[in-house]
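Hey,
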Amino acid sequence: MLYPIFYKLEGRLVVLVGGGKLAIEKLNGLSGTGARLLVICPDIHPEALDLCLKLKGIWKKESFNGHFPDETTLVIAATDDPVVNGQVFQEARRKKIPVNVADQPDLCDWYNGAVIRRGSFTLALSSSGDAPSLLKWIRKELDEQIPPDEAVFLESLKMIRDQMKEKGWTPGQRAEWFTARFEELKKAEWVHE
């Protein structure tokens, strides 16, 4: 069983080895995280390069040389070459850096899940690497159900929570109040149906 976490990458170095279609997917996932990004590959797909530059990343135009900078926080191997992916995995393990090898769950310390974002609202789903196509389908279905303005609603809830904190409400009191409000919302929906 996996332990689900949301990792703060702001200002931390993520190394991505690869520059093709798999790399594009991984770069899209890193969008908005604020991670410092280093992409290592001899050739890069134009879309991957564009994403790298938009994310203020650095493209190191060379083959993987078996080393990562000391400050590396996460490693992603996204090449079509199983030998290179294996080398990336071995070096990351040696340096005790969490690694993800695209499409090889047995060579992953962590998985990318299917993600839905609305501002700071993030919903992530995982199949432990067993069924990525199912997750993409479920993500699409849920994405259609979550209103596009969910981020505005979430910001309102944050403001209420901050005011409660200022007034000295305990975490338990805040949780109880919010739970009651959400139950009221659910009952109001039933009445309208």
